[in-house]
Specification:
heterodimer, A: about 210 residues, mainly alpha, 8 helices, globular, B: about 200 residues, 9 helices, about 5% strand, rod-shaped
Chain lengths: ~210, ~200
């Protein structure tokens, strides 16, 4: 089983995961929370392909991150952090499914049958973790972000596009835009902040939950 | 229009892109771990996912309730101490010079050096001295003690006791064969036939 999202353009450049893992192992729990924010939805989507019960998906996702946190000292950095987390999630989900099969009191609806081909789930198909409300909210968020990107000054839009879509490093962007790396860093930040101001209220008030 | 102090948030943005940030910069992140940081981080993540055309689930960002629930559980967890350094791709690591505990005690180094040198010298001397008498090949013995110098009217004569003994044992045989010339040898000659060469 492979996940196409495991190799996004942004993954081609040095990402923040290594730094956050390093700080987590050093005892900074908050650094691990940033990793959770980054990968929670992706992990839940992955588990949702195997488990039907929404509550169980969240429980398995919680257990996945707990296991990852416990084992983080053994993470050697030989693979991407998400690849490592992905394996933990798969193993945790399999174990949960085996426990469910052994427990007769649990409904069969909680998990999907083994002969159900996971590859049939196309990328945009709904999984158990994607409710219609979630899909609607995501469309609205995407629309706002794209609109905010359109009205950005040219240099900011180009910087954030080269970074997020093309996956270029700061050095490559600086060479492309013929400006210092510090300027690249500043432009990307300003672009993100400008977009964030538009979309943050929507994200924070999503389903009545606030950060 | 960005009105808030941007230094800490710009650092967060750079950290999001995997840029190396110094400990000093991290310390300047006032809202590290706070909801503000989480919210900004989540926003940056969602923006990236939208621009890359990700699926709807990731576009909505992380669930704050999920994180709060997880944080509560994490508070009771203890990360194992790092046995070996994590292999990370990153910038240069500053290696600080480590001083030995006895760096200030220079004379101890000197004493230790001389003691080692002495020990090696004694060991070498012992091994070399003991091996000379046994390992070298056997040499010819000095027989000077067995020789005598006898003054004769013709001059001094060196007489070897063993040689004298040997000669006296074989004197008769030697005299009979060497001192009396054979008549045949004394009178032998070569006479070629007169007719052969002419």
């Amino acid at each position: 089983m492979t996940d196409a999202r495991a190799q996004s353009p942004a993954d081609a450049t040095p990402d923040s995961d290594a730094l956050l893992v390093e700080r987590t192992v050093a005892g900074d729990q908050k650094a691990f929370e940033l990793l959770v924010i980054k990968y929670q939805r992706r992990i839940q989507r992955l588990i949702g392909r195997m488990v039907r019960d929404v509550d169980l998906v969240e429980d398995i996702a919680q257990e996945t991150f707990i296991r990852a946190y416990r084992a983080l000292a053994q993470f050697r950095g030989e693979a991407q952090f998400y690849t490592w987390l992905y394996r933990i999630a798969i193993n945790t989900a399999k174990k949960a499914l085996m426990d469910l099969k052994r427990n007769p009191t649990v409904s069969e609806n909680s998990f999907k049958s083994d002969d159900e081909d996971e590859t049939l789930h196309l990328k945009n198909d709904l999984t158990s973790s994607e409710t219609p409300d979630l899909v609607l909210a995501s469309k609205e968020i995407a629309q706002i972000i794209n609109m905010a990107l359109e009205v950005l000054p040219e240099d900011l839009r180009m910087a954030v596009t080269l970074r997020e879509i093309e996956g270029l490093s700061y050095e490559e962007i600086a060479e492309t835009m013929n400006c210092p790396i510090g300027t690249v860093r500043s432009r990307i930040f300003r672009a993100r902040e400008a977009i964030s101001q538009k979309v943050k209220p929507l994200l924070e008030n999503q389903a009545g939950k606030r950060w | 229009m960005i009105t808030k102090d941007s230094s800490g948030h710009e650092m967060l943005s750079a950290l999001f892109d995997g840029r190396q940030v110094s400990d000093g910069e991290l310390a300047n992140l006032p809202a590290a771990g706070s909801h503000g940081t989480h919210s900004d981080w989540n926003c940056y993540h969602v923006i990236g996912e939208v621009l890359r055309g990700s699926s709807s689930a990731e576009v909505v960002g992380a669930d704050p309730v999920f994180l709060q629930r997880l944080s509560t559980r994490l508070n009771h967890e203890v990360v194992e101490p790092l046995a070996t350094p994590v292999v990370m791709t990153g910038g240069p690591v500053a290696i600080s010079a480590v001083r030995a505990a006895n760096d200030q005690l220079f004379h101890w180094k000197l004493v230790a050096g001389f003691a080692s040198l002495g020990a090696v010298a004694v060991l070498a001397w012992t091994l070399t001295g003991s091996s000379i008498g046994t390992s070298l090949p056997q040499m010819a013995q000095d027989t000077r003690a067995a020789t005598q110098v006898t003054a004769l009217p013709e001059g001094p004569m060196i007489r070897d006791a063993r040689l004298e003994e040997l000669l006296s044992a074989h004197k008769q045989m030697g005299a009979s064969t060497l001192q009396v010339p054979s008549g045949f040898v004394r009178h032998a000659g070569f006479e070629a036939p007169l007719s052969s060469g002419r």
